[in-house]
């Protein structure tokens, strides 16, 4: 805990944003989350630059290897060390305050070190030439060695990094959540806003933990077997079952798809918890907890097997029955989303809201999430999948869901920021962040989807054909707007004022949760 | 119209906008209208909201069912079954993909010819995306080595040079993995 606080304080620029408030005695729920959130923002800064580099390399007609390097590094940094780590940091702080249990022990620092060392190792491998995209595209990593695209050393370093990240995501984080929710001893002084698992604002956190643990276990098993072979610990004959491309592709998408769904369930749960705190009439209740929980259960049940939509275009190698099942289940998730739209809209309509930057970030993130959900169900229809799979539509969907989830988590972070740091951000500047982010995200997302509709392939270093470059310019312009929004946020966090000096009524105005 | 909606990327994009635009207008209206005033809870609001909930959920389910039921006739399995049932001659074309080229058993066709593309990859994951001479994507297949062949029946409707592109990232020269098919006007 002391190490975490010390590391935050010693980090230039980013450390100032998340300097932990030690006057409240809440360091046990603030220290490690603050360090994780700060680290995630450092990864974000790197991945933003890499994201801008992607269209820039195409517009400037630079070498294609630069595009593929930036593509792999951008995806790798954005998906796990930024968004997942941000989610874990804010999420653990939330749970700690809701159940009155400390965010300490072996698992918490374990997550931090595994995630960040893993991210650094993967980045080193990418710089050594390993260009496999964040989706790994197995068996490309092995084929790349056979065709002289990268070295075995880079593969071993890269896979070691990926393995550390997977352990942190699939084991350490979910087990920590389960430990806090079901086992650790509650401490009164850490209990800020009591919540039980009957509350939809907490239910989703438990659901997501079990989804990650159960749906990630097959990938962890396969990846471990492959890694043990690469380390020369096991002979190939022992791990041949795991090296089969079909096995790897299926366990990867069973995990990757459900990872996204788990992240969605977790953030929708956090939205259900945050929205009532900003209701104008002080009700502090959702329109209906029952409908909110029903939406989460529908999302959970339907999302588990909807991953088959990733394989529609293998027809007939993917049996039609599984394809139809994936199609139907994907639309089932949209039923859950429709119920969520209803609950959030009805709550706002009935009670009104105080339009603070934190809540507006949450709500605009929710808008982005639903807009992306529409693109997701379109491509989850078997007929459309044959026109859209492998195009920029898919890249746009992936980007949009991550951008939406991160916007909502940043909103939740802004809400919790005074409790973690004892400071508040500037409201006007916060609103500028939300506005720029929303414009950038919707613009970039739509440009990606239009590019996909035009047939532009994803992960493809040759945009200057068939008139596709216009989408490249649009992606660059809106990408810069998105980046600017983060510049505004970084400045705002750096200039945040102490609660006592910013709010006349003092700490009583701080969020209860 | 149905063919445009279900057989082109822009058709999908149109349906997407029809879903997105009403939602964004409605939700922003709710947020910004209710963000500027302080209402108090009212039981009469509950009754009308419950009615709206039922209408909303029935509408959502109906739209989803219609979208998916109509799409069935464009499923590859259905297109293939219809072609076989109609007694059309289906020309078999075998495609083998490897980094970064295609080996295609036949590359010249006539307008109106119905072809069954059967494709596989011998090394890593590749794609087989067929583009109309106008640049519109007609279909794509994902080829995972070892899982079995992907297969799709297609009837060429227009003459010209059709481009084939790999749509699954496969390494340093992924963007150069392409080929062409030439379709000429039928002599009849």
Summarize the structure in words.
The complex is a heterodimer of chains A (513) and B (188). With 513 residues, chain A is an all-alpha fold. Chain A has a domain at 1-194. Chain A is built from 18 helices and two strands. In chain A, helix 4 (64-99) packs antiparallel against helix 5 (107-127) and helix 8 (200-230) crosses helix 9 (236-243). Chain A starts with a helix and ends in an 11-residue tail after the last helix. Mean pLDDT of chain A is 94; it is low at 504-510. Chain B has 188 residues and is of the alpha+beta class. Chain B has two domains: 2-76, no CATH class; 88-184, Cupredoxins -  blue copper proteins (Immunoglobulin-like), CATH 2.60.40.420. In chain B, the strands form two sheets. A five-stranded mixed β-sheet of chain B has the order 3-9-8-5-6, with no helix packed on it. Chain B has a four-stranded mixed β-sheet with strand order 2-1-4-7. In chain B, a hairpin with a 2-residue loop joins strand 1 (90-98) and strand 2. Chain B is elongated. Chains A and B meet through helix 4, helix 6, helix 10, helix 12 and helix 13 of A and helix 2, helix 3, strand 5, strand 6 and strand 7 of B.
């Amino acid at each position: 805990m002391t190490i975490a606080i010390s590391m935050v304080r010693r980090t230039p620029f980013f450390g100032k944003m998340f300097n932990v408030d030690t006057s409240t005695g809440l360091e046990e729920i603030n220290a490690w989350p603050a360090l994780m959130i700060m680290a995630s923002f450092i990864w974000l800064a790197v991945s933003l630059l890499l994201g801008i580099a992607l269209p820039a390399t195409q517009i400037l007609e630079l070498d294609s290897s630069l595009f593929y390097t930036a593509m792999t590094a951008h995806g790798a940094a954005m998906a796990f060390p930024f968004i997942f780590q941000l989610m874990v940091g804010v999420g653990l702080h939330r749970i700690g305050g809701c159940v009155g249990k400390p965010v300490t022990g072996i698992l918490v620092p374990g997550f931090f070190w595994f995630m960040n060392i893993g991210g650094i190792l993967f980045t080193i491998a990418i710089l050594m030439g390993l260009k496999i995209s964040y989706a790994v595209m197995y068996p490309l990593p092995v084929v790349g060695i056979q065709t002289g695209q990268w070295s075995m050393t880079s593969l071993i370093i890269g896979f070691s990094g990926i393995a550390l990240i997977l352990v942190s995501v699939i084991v350490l984080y979910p087990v920590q959540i389960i430990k806090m929710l079901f086992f650790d001893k509650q401490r009164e002084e850490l209990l800020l806003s009591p919540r039980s698992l009957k509350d939809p604002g907490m239910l989703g956190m438990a659901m997501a933990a079990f989804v990650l643990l159960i749906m990630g276990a097959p990938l962890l098993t396969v990846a471990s077997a492959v890694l043990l072979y690469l380390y020369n610990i096991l002979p190939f004959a022992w791990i041949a079952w795991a090296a089969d491309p079909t096995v790897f592709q299926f366990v990867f998408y069973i995990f990757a798809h459900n990872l996204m769904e788990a992240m969605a369930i977790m953030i929708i749960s956090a939205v259900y918890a945050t929205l009532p705190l900003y209701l104008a009439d002080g009700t502090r209740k959702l329109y209906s907890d029952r409908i909110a929980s029903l939406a989460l259960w529908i999302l959970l049940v339907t999302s588990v097997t909807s991953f088959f939509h990733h394989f529609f275009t293998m027809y007939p190698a993917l049996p039609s029955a599984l394809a139809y099942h994936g199609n139907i289940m994907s639309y089932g998730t949209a039923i859950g989303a429709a119920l969520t739209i209803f609950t959030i809209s009805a709550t706002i309509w009935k009670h009104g809201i105080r339009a603070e930057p934190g809540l507006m970030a949450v709500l605009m993130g929710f808008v982005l999430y639903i807009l992306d959900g529409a693109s997701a169900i379109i491509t989850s229809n078997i007929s459309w999948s044959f026109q859209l799979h492998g195009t920029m539509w898919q890249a746009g969907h992936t980007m949009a869901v991550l951008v939406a989830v991160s916007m909502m988590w940043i909103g939740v972070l802004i809400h919790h920021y005074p409790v973690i740091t004892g400071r508040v951000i500037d409201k006007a500047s916060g609103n500028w962040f939300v506005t720029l982010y929303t414009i950038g995200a919707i613009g970039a997302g739509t440009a990606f989807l239009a590019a996909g509709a035009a047939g532009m392939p994803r992960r493809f270093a040759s945009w200057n054909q068939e008139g596709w470059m216009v989408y490249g310019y649009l992606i660059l312009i809106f990408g810069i707007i998105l980046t600017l929004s983060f510049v505004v946020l970084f400045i705002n966090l750096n200039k945040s004022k102490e609660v006592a000096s910013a709010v006349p009524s003092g700490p009583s105005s701080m969020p209860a949760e | 119209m149905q063919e445009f909606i279900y057989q082109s990327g822009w058709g999908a994009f149109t349906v997407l906008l029809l879903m997105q635009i009403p939602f964004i207008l409605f939700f922003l209206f709710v947020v910004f209208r209710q963000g500027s005033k302080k209402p108090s809870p009212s039981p009469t609001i509950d009754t009308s909201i419950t009615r709206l909930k039922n209408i909303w959920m029935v509408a959502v389910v109906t739209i989803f069912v219609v979208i998916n039921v109509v799409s069935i006739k464009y499923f590859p399995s259905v297109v293939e079954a219809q072609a076989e049932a109609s007694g059309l001659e289906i020309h078999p074309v075998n495609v083998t993909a490897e980094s970064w080229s295609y080996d295609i058993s036949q590359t010249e066709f006539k307008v109106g010819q119905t072809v069954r593309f059967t494709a596989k990859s011998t090394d890593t994951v590749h794609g087989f995306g067929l583009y109309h001479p106008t640049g519109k994507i007609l279909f794509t297949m994902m080829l995972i080595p070892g899982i079995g062949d992907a297969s799709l029946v297609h009837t060429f409707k227009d003459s010209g040079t059709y481009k084939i592109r790999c749509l699954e990232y496969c390494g340093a020269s992924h963007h150069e993995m392409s080929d062409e098919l030439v379709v000429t006007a039928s002599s009849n």
